[in-house]
Design brief:
Distance between the termini: 6 Å
Shape: globular
Number of domains: 1
Low-confidence stretches: none
CATH architecture: Alpha-Beta Barrel
Strand order of the largest sheet: 1-2-3-4-5-6-7-8
Largest sheet: 8 strands, parallel, barrel
Number of helices: 11
CATH class: Alpha Beta
Radius of gyration: 17 Å
Strand content: 5-15%
Bound molecules: 1,3-dihydroxyacetonephosphate
Helix content: 40-55%
């Protein structure tokens, strides 16, 4: 059976009250519809604890959008993996292109964060993907391979079971134009093969999510691709109707 994970990356959106409402609406839908797919919400840091209580006891998992690679210390403004675990997180998004672009995160730092997250039993949702220029220069697979090789350096076969990959072509994020199904199918097959060649056949079970303008209009087609195990969703995850519709399409692809 195909495993699916539908994860909402709320980015820097919503106030506490709005976040509570969104989480409650998703909770109600999941309680009523009991999907087979796993569902995750990744709100901003200040809302994590409150939302963990709203979704407690359901199949909705909590994820953070970032973490620091040290467990504690004098690192003003940073948040550590054990802190995230202590407020109920199972997932943490690492290496998102917005962090790479606006906060200068490189592959080495991302590797350190992945290692730190795993050390404290957090599952990284590890984001990779090429820019428009890189795609136009036919360097997509070179870039994705570099991101995976360095990002997952020194990760063991046991640890790879706890890692989720999110293929998010940078040019498709927040643009309203997703990659087309052929591009997604090809990239996900490439990533699957690379993981299997690097870590072994266990990676047939690795969750590889697609992200980048995924919405209720294109979800059916994208989520039905064989190597797509769900989505990491930005804008469309901010509206419960839109988000839960995507979960419905995930259910159809299982
Ligand atoms: P959008 O769905 O808004 O394009 O964002 C995708 C994304 O960056 C998820 O991490």
């Amino acid at each position: 059976m195909k495993r699916m994970l539908i994860a909402g990356n709320w980015k820097m959106h919503k106030t506490l009250k709005e976040a509570e409402e969104l989480a409650s609406d998703i909770f109600n839908w999941v309680e009523t519809n009991r999907p087979k797919s796993d569902v995750a919400v990744c709100p901003p840091f200040p809302f994590l604890h409150t939302i963990s209580k709203i979704i407690a006891g359901t199949k909705i998992y909590l994820g953070a959008q970032n973490c620091y690679h040290e467990p504690e210390g004098a690192f003003t403004g940073e948040v550590s993996p054990p802190m995230l675990v202590s407020v109920g997180c199972k997932f943490v998004i690492i290496g998102h292109s917005e962090r790479r672009t606006y906060f200068s995160e490189n592959d080495q730092l991302i590797n350190a964060k992945i290692q730190a997250a795993l050390r404290f039993n957090l599952s990284p949702i590890f984001c990779i993907g090429e820019t428009l220029q890189e795609r136009q220069e036919n360097r997509t697979y070179e870039i994705v391979e570099r991101q995976i090789k360095i990002g997952l350096n020194n990760i063991s076969i046991e640890q790879i079971r706890n890692i989720v990959i999110a293929y998010e072509p940078v040019w498709a994020i927040g643009t309203g134009v997703s990659a087309n199904t052929e591009q997604i199918d090809e990239a996900h097959r490439f990533i699957r093969k690379l993981l299997i060649n690097t870590f072994g056949p266990e990676c047939n079970d690795t969750l590889i999510l697609y992200g980048g303008s995924l919405n209720s209009k294109n979800a059916k087609e994208i989520l039905s691709l064989p190597d797509v195990n769900g989505g990491l969703i930005g804008k469309a995850s901010l509206d419960s109707k839109e988000f839960t519709k995507i979960i419905e399409y995930a259910e159809q692809s299982i």
